[in-house]
Structures are given as C-alpha cells and as structure tokens.
User: Fold this.
Amino acid sequence: MDMKKMAGEAALQFVRDGMRIGLGTGSTVYWTIIKLGERVQQGLNIQAIATSAKTEKLAANLGIPMLQTSQIDELDLAIDGADEIAPGFQLIKGGGGALLREKMVASIARRFIVAADESKLVDRLGAFPLPVEVVAFGWELTRNAIRKLGCDPILRTGSNGAFKTDNANLILDCRFQEILNPAQLNADLNSIPGVVENGLFIGMADTVIIGHKDGKVEIMQS
Ligand code: 5RP
Assistant:
C-alpha cells in the first residue's frame, strides 16, 4: 500500500467543479495532482495555482489550467503535504523547500487540506528540522540570531552547493528537538531580520487526511 498515494488521491473528494485550488509540493500531493489531471481530462472545470516551479510544470503538463497570483485573491481549497503533524493540526512543512509559497497559498484558501502518510503524525513538533527560508545576504548573521532561539541551524545544500529556493533564498534547517510553543516560535523567527518565512503552519489546516499502512484512509476535521 502506498500510503502517500492513498492520502493524496483521497483529497480529490473535496474538489468541486468551478473551484480555484492551491496545489502544494512534494511526493504526497504529487498523487493529488496526477488524479486532478485525469479528472480535468475527463471534463472537470477547475483552475489551480502552484506552490513551486516543480508543481507548476507537473500540473501544466497534465493540462490543468493554471492561474497566476495577479488573478486571485482567494482560493476555494489548498491541498498540500506536511513533514510533521501534531495535535491541533500544528504542522511543520518545507521539507521540499517550498514553504514560503505554500504558506502564502494556504493563507488565502477557505479550506486548507493536508494529506500525509501516518509516519508524519507526532505528539509534539520538533524532531523534524524546521526549515527557515532566509535571504542570502548576511545569512550567517540570521543563522546566529536563530541559534539563540535554541537550535543549531544547518544550511541546506544541494548538488551544486547551497540549496536555492524558487525565490532565490536559502534554507536553514533548524532542529529544535521539541517545540513547546509553536505559535511563539513562529512569531519569534519571523521577527528576525533576514528571515523570510518559516515552516511552522499553526492554526491553518482545516482537514487532515492520513494514509495508514493497513490501507485505511482517515479524515480528520478541525
Ligand atoms: C514541501 C513540503 C511538503 O509538503 C512536505 O515536505 C511533505 O512532503 P512529502 O509529501 O514528499 O512527504 O512542505 O515544501
């Protein structure tokens, strides 16, 4: 059983004709996009906005009509994955480096749906290193300021040196071990000059869809 596929495809039950939909990034929402492409080919009329260049390319290649930010101010739905999901639908996102666009898109959606496999469920956020997007200028200064919040930020690297986001910024992966007050940490991180956004999504998700290894799909509403 592919738990990510089950969860990603289950998100389609919330899609209705005429909707404007935010499409997340990652290997779970990949399955949502593939299924959505099939439905569009069968006549479903939706429009979508992507949270990354990768998603934009995938969706456009499947014939999904794509929107630009200048054409929207709200969305009916946003569908995305997550790296950790704690009680109260507190999330860590950004494992794929798309957290800024993902947060912007989720913030204008009337309903934000998160799809994930059961391994993403945790009692408390923080074992997964929290991705923080920072501007390249003076990133060492930003890292030093983040370190004072109680973690050891690691600059994310790719095959050609430092990983660059779609916004030409850098990612610092910050392992806090345990995040006792996610809302406060979200505010503290975003008040540091040089921080663009962080991967804490607090009070944003409305629906969580979990694929379990026994083949069951669980749907939780806030
Ligand atoms: C990308 C994300 C992803 O949603 C998150 O990393 C989960 O990815 P996957 O579905 O591949 O496990 O936040 O920035």
